[in-house]
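# nightly structure sweep
# worker-07 picked up a monomer target from the shared queue
# config: single-sequence mode, recycle default, output format = structure tokens
# input follows
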Amino acid sequence: MRNQSILSYKMFPDYGSNLGDVVPVGKQLDIWGDAETEVMILNDGDESLCLGYEDVHFYHDLYVGDQVDFKATMVKIGNTSRKVKLETYKVATPARRNGRPDAAENEVDVLDPPLLCSEGYSVLVVKKPQQRGVQPDGIVADPWAEVDKVI
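# output follows
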């Protein structure tokens, strides 16, 4: 079972609809939807239906030019419901926005460690007839185990 999806996006100018090139939080929710859909397809073979979000927090703004990772990790599997933890990490940002006004226009700073910008949970449902294979139940003990093996 693959229980995690990480989608990398660059925040393009058409994403920044607010003053100061801030990317609206709605765009983050759209991309979270893509990440959770990928997890559900890989796990269940179905896109699922999102029932809603829980405990969502936005800590830092995203800006045009930022390089961002959107992570969706399945943390609980029920009979038809799935709980997914969602996280947004800024991994790189334009150097000028990062406090270096003399930097070249296309210069970026890699953030080490990446900056957690938002997190929350979603609850999704996959009807029994749409599920494929044997589905485990309960809480995923170590959601990083599969990722650690790859690295």
